[in-house]
Amino acid sequence: MQPSDFWQNFVNKQVTFRYMRQELQFNLSQSLFSSADVDIGSRFLLRTIAKKVEITQISYMLDIGCGVGVLGLSLKRINPNIQLLAQDRDALAVTFTAQNAVLNELDNVVAQGGLAFDDVGEQKFDLIVSNLPGKAGHSVLQDILHRMPAYLSKTGMAAVVIVKPLAELVAETLAEMESEILLREEASGYEVFHFRAGNLAQAGTEQGLEPYIRNEQAFKMGKKSVEMQTAWNLPEFDSLAHDTTLAINALKKKTVSGRVMFWNPRQGHLPVFLREQVDEFVLAGRDGLSLQMAEMNLERVGAGTVTHQHIPHFLEASGQYDWLIIFPDMDPGVAWENYLLPHCRDLLVPGGRVLLVAKSAYTHRLLQKKRGLHSKFDRKRNGYRAVILAKA
After folding, report:
1. Does residue 289 contact residue 319 with C-beta atoms inside 8 Å?
2. Is 214-391 the same fold as 3-196?
3. What is the per-residue pLDDT across 363-374, written as a single tens digit (0 to 9) for each?
């Protein structure tokens, strides 16, 4: 199996979804939102669009936070002429959307990774849809809403769904924007809003990471304390997790130099800790917000060359490295013990090393396929295990 086909290992089930008398198939994953069936919020939003929107008049549509593609692909089934741009910060979700488009024989679908509106360009859309992420943080939700008008065509509209506890935040934000609310409806713990830009269409489209910032504080790592910014909806926003502390202890007396890949860098604590040793930082993982936060924190401390690979899974990681520092994914149903360390061997230069940190039982499973890698360090603490392996 080629790395580009490995996404099939993440498929949990395939479901049939009927919308406006049309039938679609969706592959779902336990590693993504709504793994058992199409979620209630998306169903609700699509019902309101079917009643209130002339779907046949839509030419360009944007799906923010697309997940497996339910919203955008369902509407495109009704009007195949729609040019759909689907976007998600999770690269695995982007892959599922693209593959579900193929499964349903839908053309003119672009699925791309990124935070809301990243790399959208100057395209204007007749419809923007979003199942707004309730855990993203208030400032992030407000930023998404504030930026929507700048991407709407003159007659375009947005249609969003949000969990009921956050509905007033959406209503207040739209009121501040003087948006024209076309519909507000609630059902099953969710509320839907349809709106147009109104009188205060936002001119700015480039917001950067500011809305995502949750905290700024000093973190003690080893003997030094470093000031870092942290984001909503990422771990370790105010303290280091046990596995990160264990990783720091494993590396305190090691020389980590050359080209180093950090898989799942989170807020960037490990890269920042090693900022004075590493020549080239390669930040890699599914979560685009994690990669951007880690890169920003490295830039704040004046680190060297930083690149990133926003990819759906570890088998798509490429290049040659002196070190790999990995917080592995624990994807239900994916037998990573058969793939992770063999791919590490392929990525390492001769004599290169990998630091692997995970729950003790999971680490034990991953070590079943370490042929060609020799143990240099092994320590357990607080239910986690850190191992350093060297390539012959």
Report:
1. no
2. yes
3. 999 999 899 999
Q: Could you please report the per-residue DSSP string of 128-183?
A: EEEE--GGG-HHHHHHHHHHGGGGEEEEEEEEEEEEGGGHHHHHHHHHHTT-EEEE
In the structure, what pLDDT confidence band is assigned to residue 80 with cuts at 50, 70 and 90? Answer: very high
Helix then strand then coil, % of the chain, to nearest 5 = 35, 35, 30
Q: Euclidean distance between the first and final Cα of the chain, in Å?
A: 26
21 Cβ partners below 8 Å, 6+ apart? none
Q: What is the identity of the amino acid at 157?
A: M
**Superfamily of the domain at 214-391:** Vaccinia Virus protein VP39 (3.40.50.150)
Amino acid at 54: E
Cβ atoms within 10 Å, residue 355? 24
The residue count of the chain comes to 392
pLDDT at 203: 47
The residue assigned the tokens 């920003």 is: 296
The CATH fold of domain 3-196: Rossmann fold (3.40.50)
**Residue 187 tokens, joined:** 């059902």
Using CA atoms, how far apart are residues 169 and 385, in angstroms rounded to an integer? 42
Q: Where are the domains of the chain?
A: 3-196, 214-391
